[in-house]
Each structure stands twice: as C-alpha cells, then as structure tokens.
Amino acid sequence: xxxxELRSKYLEFFRQRGHRVIPSVSLVPENDPTTLFVSxxxxxxxxxxxGIPHPMGSRVTNSQKSLRxxxxxxxxxNRHTTFFEMLGNWSFGDYFKAEQLxxxxxxxxxxxxxxxxxLYVTTFIGDESLGIPRxxxxxxxxxxxxxxxxxEAKDVALGSEENGGTKGMQGGRIFYYDAKKNWWSxxxxxxxxxAGEPGGPDSEVFYDFDPTGVMHDVKFxxxxxxxxxxxxxxxxxxxxxxxxxxxxxxxxxxxxxxNVDFGGGLERIAAAREGGGDVFLLDAFTPLISVLExxxxxxxxxxxxxxxxxxxHIRAATFMLGDGVTPxxxxxxxxxxxxxxxxxxxVDVLGAPxxxxxxxATAVIEYFKxxxxxxxxxxxxxxxxxxxxxxxxxxxxxxxxxxxxxxxKEGPLRGEDAFTLFTTFGFPFEVTEELAKERxxxxxxxxxxxxxxxxxxxxxxxxxxxxxGGLADHSEQTVRxxxxxxxxxxxxxxxxxxxVHQRGSNITSERLRIDFSxxxxxxxxxxxxxEKIVNExxxxxxxxxxxxxxxxxxxxxGAEHEFGVKYPEMVSVYSVGPKGAVExxxxxxxxxxxEFCGGPHVNNTQExxxxxxxxxxxxxxxxxxxxxxxKAVLV
Length: 635
Description:
Helix 9 packs antiparallel against helix 10 (331-349), helix 9 crosses helix 11 (356-368) and helix 14 (415-425) packs across helix 16. The chain contains 19 helices and 17 strands. Strands 1, 2, 3, 4, 5, 6, 7, 8, 9 and 10 form a 10-stranded mixed sheet that branches. By secondary structure, the protein is an alpha+beta fold. A hairpin with a 2-residue loop joins strand 16 and strand 17. It folds into 3 domains: 3-280, Bira Bifunctional Protein, Domain 2 (BirA Bifunctional Protein, domain 2), CATH 3.30.930.10; 296-466, no CATH class; 475-634, Threonyl-tRNA Synthetase, Chain A, domain 2, CATH 3.30.980.
C-alpha cells in the first residue's frame, strides 16, 4: 500500500461514515498571526470548534499539509520530519468518543491491516486543580476494542514521562499520562493556554516496532514505555476531545459542543504497515533516494542521517515554496532558507553536485502532483528559488570560511565565535564543529548551545509579544479589526483599482496589517481617500452577514478570496452591507464587501466605531516586488 493509496483509503473510509472531504489549506495560515505555518489539521478549523457552523456540515475529513519548525533539529532519526501530512476527521458537536475510537481502531486493524497486539494507547490522567476528571471513558472503550480482537488491555497510571522511564510497561496496554502528554491545545498544556483558547484531553495510539524490547536504549530511561523516545514506539494517531475553553480567571468551562479533532500521521501509519519503522524508506521517498544515490558517492545505508536531512528538508521547502513562501532572513522565509541551506550542507556530505536539490524538488512534485496539483503549477518558481538559494549559500560558505580561518589563528574556538559565524555568516554549527575537529582546535560547543538557547528565548519572547492577542483569541477588539480588514481591502480596490488583491494579513488586538498587490507607493491623497471610505462604512452602521453558498455562486458575486487557496464545494462568505440586509435576505449582490471567510466578525460596523473610534493608517510600505503593506489602527 503506497502513501498515496493509504491517503485515499482513509478519506474513503470516513466519506462512507458521513464525512465530507475538504481540501488541504495552504501551509501559510490565513488571518492567524499566532503561528508561522499550519502545523495541524485543526488549525484552520478553529472557528467551527467555537460554535460557527461549518459550510460542509458537522462531519468533515481531509489530509492537511503541515509543517512543524520545532522538529528541524530532530530530523535524522527514523520518524521526525518537518513537513508531513496529517490525516484528519472532525466532528463539530456531532459524534464523540463512542464513535471516534472504534472507527480509528477499525481503520488501523481492518483497513490498514495492523496487528492489534502491536498497538498501545494513552489517555489523560486528569487534573483535579482544574476540575478536569481522568478520562476513564476512553479507557473503557479501548478495553472493549482490544478484547474484541483477543488482546488483554490492562490500564496503568504513569503520569509523567519521567515516571514512565522509571516504572515501565507493567504489563499495560492503556496508559494514563499528564497534560504534558495527553492534553491538546495549540498552546500546549492547560497552564499555557490563553483565555478563549479551546482544548481537551486526547487519546493517542502508538505502534510497537519491537515487542521484544531489545532496541530500548537506557539513555532515554531505565524502562521503556509508549512515550519513550528510544524509537521502539511511534505515535500514529491522536483523537482530541475538544470540549473545554479557558476562561479569563484561568478556570475551564465546557464548550457549547463536544467536538472531535483527530490527527494521524500519514507517513507514520504507512511506516507501521511496512513494519520497518523508518518513514524515509516509504515509497514517497524512494524516487528521491534514487536521485541522491545516482548523483552522489554514498548509499542510504552508508550515510543515513544526511540522506534523511536532505530528503525531509527539500520536501518541506518544495511545499513551502509551492505555497508562495520565498527564502529570506525573516519569519517564514527564514525557515525556508534554513531548510535549503541545511540540505546544501548534507548534499555535500553525500558528494552530490550543485543542482541536485532542484532535481530532488522535481521528484517531490512528480510524486505528489495528483493530490497537490498546485506544486506542478509552481514547479518553475520552486526550482528557481532553490537554485538561487543554493548559489547564495555557497558564496556565504566562502565568506564564513574566511572568517573561520581568521578565528582559528587566535587559538581555541569560543562558543560566541561559533555563534557569530552562525548568525552573521550563516555558517552551520556542524560545519564549525567538523572544521575545528579537523584542525585539532578546542571548541566550546556547550558555550555555543548556551548562546543559541539565549537567542531562541529572546526570539520566542519577541514572537509572543508580537503575536499577542491574535485573531485566534477571538477577543472583541481583534474581531473588530478583522471586519475592518475586510472593509479596508474593498476600499483599496475602490481607490487603487480592482486589480488589488490581498497577499497576506496579520491581525492582532492592537492593529491590523494587510499585504496587497500594487506596483507603486500610495500617494497621501490615496491614503486619505482610503481612510475616508473605511470610516464612512463604519459610520453607516452596515450589517455584517454570514452566508453559506456554493463556491461557484460566491465567485459569481465577485467574493474576494485568498490567492492560491483551494476551497470546498460549499463556502462561508461574509458580506458587509447593504443597509437593509437581514438574516435570510443578505442582499449580497448589493454588499459593499464580500469575502470567503470563516469568521468571526462583528454583527454591525457600528461596533467597530464604539466609543468614537476611527480608522487610521499608520504606515504604508513595500514588502516585495509588486506587493505593498499597510499597518492600521482604530483610535
């Protein structure tokens, strides 16, 4: 069963159980400044967990492109990848544990063909301080499911990962862990969640690649357990029971609906079926390994880590570039740059010539083009960006080498020297380490790691401050800015011309930001006219209406939508105005603004102008060729 076949079987399995298949959204999140990339299938669906009806109904499924940047340094083992596909099925107040857990178990055992004796599950141990009980309901369902396959299923309370390393399996099949392992929200454990964030207990399924336990490495703990990092167990699916929302006082209350948010790693389930435990030996990577082995001087088994880094990073970069990300020194562009440059370093280790990375990108596109046709459409752009970035980095390496030679003459290499090489010259840490070893130079690697940790802490703090109160929190002020953003886009089209379209956005409780297509700097008169129109629409007290309609009908009305995004057959659109619009009769054909959007929004534009607020453009600037940016506030 190929990766492509497994994806199809999953989607068909849930289609047969009443789910509508929805397309994957772009890796670049829409109107969500809390994160650089979509990292799970639920991320674009947040409004529907909070009570807004999904245009495709209460049961949906898809395979979502996902990217997790925290796993970059982990790549090189048998299971970590930065880019991955997340199989997902969701219930918005429809079914719950009694349906979800048996369905996933059936899919794994009867459709994929996994041995139930190789499956282990975890559930939430509860948190008395927050009034959240132990998830015994999931445990009881799992016991019955395993029993139906003749597998005894004893439950064991481990609590923390550290306890697992001390106490071990204890003959268990079902394991209770704390919130660090079995609670899911985008922010992590309950204590880290901001007010307004939904979350809930989850139940994870693990596959055992080594029932004998021989492969366990004691450096990960004396005893092995499902959440051990030794490689014996691999998580293949996680059913989140999204049923709580955090209140302003730090306590939790039930959401209006009990929801299911399932995410399963496509490649991980495929690796479990193959039984080898190495996701990089799946058929999705076979063409890439072939290209690398022919171009270079080493085989996969001879330089496994470098192969894995190149395979993962070039696949991730290909999908990122296909979704419009361009390598740069900031935000998403920095991640793309870092992945490509790391791939360059490891391609050199494999003895492959310059230009090999672009060939690998072509192999990625050819494998995934049927399910993700946008890759084929962007093939030329993808290859050009990879070649340009590789060429730039090779010049950077030359500069870095000159600086390294200078520093190496001064004696032992300090951690701060390596840090300067990395941050100023883009010189990878592993290159510095290898060169120091070759020259017999003492190298303070611990000092470098300390400097990096300090740097990352500052970056994280800056990101937290920058993204504080993003649209995802649904605070009143953020919702006001969201509706203002819609009005602003239309005002720009009125003043600058209909060819203006959104090319990015970032909305927080403190301001809005919009990137839009326009070739030249706006004049003071144009900016004043845009401000005037926005403030007029706020003062007109226009109703803001949500309508669910066929995608084609919305396009006929000229509904604005995100560039390059695939939408389902039925879509949610928000219209601003006209004045007489009411629920059931939105009069979309006469609306001032109409956009594809999941919400949320104010009910009437007068809410934006409460307390005498007016719209004001703070800054208008260029961000790329043919793309301008406006930052604006309500004051």
